[in-house]
Amino acid sequence: MIQLRAVQKIFGRRPAVEDLTLSVPRGEIFGLLGHNGAGKSTAIGMMLGQVWPTRGEVRVCGFEITTQRRRALQKVGAIFEAPIFYDYLSAQRNLEILSHYTAPTSKQRIAEVIDWVGLSGREQEKVRTYSHGMRARLALAQALLPQPELLILDEPSDGLDPEGIHEMRGTILRLHRELGLTILLSSHLLNEVEQLCTRIAVMNQGRKVFEGTVSDATRRRGWVRLRAGDFHQAAQLLKRALLITDDRDGKLIALADGVGTDRVTRHLVEQGMAVFEIAVEEETLEGFYLSLMKRGKAGPPPG
Amino acid sequence: MFFHQLHNELWKLFGKKRTYIGFGMFLLVQNAMLFGFHFSKGFRRLYESALAGNGYLVDDYISALTVALIMLLPQIVLLIPLYTGLIGGDLVAKEAEDGTLRMILCRPISRWRLLFVKWVAGVIFSASLVIALGGMALLFAKMWFPWQGLFVFFPEPEHIFAVLPAGEGLKLYAISHVFLAINASTMMTIAFMFGCFNMKPAAATILAISFLFLNLVLESIPALADYRPYMLLYHFRSWMLVYGQPIDWARIITALSVLGAFNVTCLVIGGTAFHVRDIKS
């Protein structure tokens, strides 16, 4: 649904996005992670034809955004952080105004969407009377009006209270499940991304430093947690038997190629070593993300 | 689709309270001026000398039409540029500042089309402001002064002196408002053009008004008298020429052509700037 190829954006002399290649397949919830200023919003701006790329190609729904913007955005809905509306107009009027930039939209469709986001009965009230949560729901309504196939959400939970965040998370899952939408979610709420997304890309200083599945990111490949009677002695025994290649932190071992935890356990027991626990080490997305940020402009994903 | 979008732009424009500042100020200023005219002897004396010197009776021409026309002058020079500049500057720049422009531009509408719709809405606003200005001036003047002939006296640089029966005067008064609406739209277009660049709405308004004042200053320099036809204000005065006897249609048509070309130029410059700029929060 979205393809970015070697995209670069420079504001003045400052590069905001460098050599970004990204692919969001149909039907996925794709997370875009990064600090403030990492280039996420600029990348989203380029996907929506609001920011012109300095170099590279951006395709949305199969169309090149700079030359075929109208066709590319025909089936796209978007929400930005802190949704802004015409506060002095009613929610209904706001939706009418925004929908007419896509195509004539019937009152019935507007009513359907208002109902879907749970704002029925409040649509005639002026937006200035709305709470932040209601504005977020209205933002979702305007994004859904053109019956999109792709939804781009830029920090949709920004400024919401915990209940609002939970509700937004449920809504995103519902949109994916019930309407089959492809969703690009930009967020720095890592647990939100971990719960929602199947694939993620991490950006740092304008560059993509990781792209892969969430399980790729959270699995510390090669590292196995070992609790034995004497860890250091156990590690020496395993190294001598060429079953592991490395150990660290007094609890982690790196298995040699083709070696499984069963062989390690058997060898230690045969050597009279007590083994209390052996398990593939998993990392939280937060830990993974922070290690990526520390490494700065990293190359390939850890493995 | 275009009319749907235009309808929505008008909703946005006329839904804002600040859009009505101009209308409200006209109401106050006109009534204050009428109050002054009605009770001031100086005003009557001024026109008495001009009329009596040409053999006309002052009582026949100090009328609602004459007073309405006199009231237009300061408002055209000061208030119309201010309010049309304010709205012209707001149309794009305020939406960019507020963030609603980002909401619009994630829709499949071309930037050129969006600008054109907004500009047409601005032209409608400018025309309605001028119609309100003229209509209210005449309405309020009618409450204080009798319905009689129209006396027109525009001193330098146009030198127009005319006395007209009420029917003919009303007709020319209406026609002159068409030209005033074109002037107001041009002022709006200048501010609109500046608003298409990456700047605050107030900056766009100030730049547009500064441009007008620069024209005013240049035009008032005697050494530049030969260059007046190259200045915007010279062409803005086409509305006055309507009252000339005979009407200088050649100059009016020239002025309209120049203003038309000026508007197109502003739109192209503003549109190009808007098209190439990045819209970010």
Structure explained in plain terms:
The complex is a heterodimer of chains A (303) and B (281). Chain A has helices spanning 40-47, 69-72, 91-99, 107-116, 132-144, 162-179, 190-196, 214-218, 231-240, 261-270, 285-295; strands spanning 2-11, 14-24, 29-34, 55-60, 63-64, 76-79, 150-154, 182-186, 199-204, 207-213, 219-228, 244-248, 252-255, 275-282. By secondary structure, chain A is α/β, with parallel strands linked by helices. In chain A, the strands form 3 sheets. A 6-stranded mixed sheet of chain A has the order 6-7-8-3-9-10, with helices on both faces. Chain A has a 4-stranded antiparallel sheet with strand order 2-1-4-5. A 4-stranded antiparallel sheet of chain A has the order 12-13-11-14. In chain A, helix 4 (107-116) packs across helix 5. Chain B has helices spanning 2-14, 21-39, 41-52, 58-61, 64-98, 100-104, 111-144, 166-195, 201-219, 232-236, 238-241, 249-276; strands spanning 150-154, 160-164. The longest helix of chain B is centred in the first third of the chain and has 35 residues, at 64-98. In chain B, 41% of the residues are buried. Classes of the chains: A alpha/beta (303), B mainly alpha (281).
CATH class designation of the domain at 221-285 in chain A: Alpha Beta
Structural class of chain B: mainly alpha
Identify the quaternary structure here: heterodimer
**What is the average of the pLDDT values of chain B?**
89
How do the strands and helices of this protein lay out in sequence?
The complex is a heterodimer of chains A (303) and B (281).
Chain A: E1 2-11, E2 14-24, E3 29-34, H1 40-47, E4 55-60, E5 63-64, H2 69-72, E6 76-79, H3 91-99, H4 107-116, H5 132-144, E7 150-154, H6 162-179, E8 182-186, H7 190-196, E9 199-204, E10 207-213, H8 214-218, E11 219-228, H9 231-240, E12 244-248, E13 252-255, H10 261-270, E14 275-282, H11 285-295
Parallel strand pairs in A: 3-8, 3-9, 6-7, 7-8
Antiparallel strand pairs in A: 1-2, 1-4, 4-5, 9-10, 11-13, 11-14, 12-13
Helix pairs in contact in A: 4-5
Chain B: H1 2-14, H2 21-39, H3 41-52, H4 58-61, H5 64-98, H6 100-104, H7 111-144, E1 150-154, E2 160-164, H8 166-195, H9 201-219, H10 232-236, H11 238-241, H12 249-276
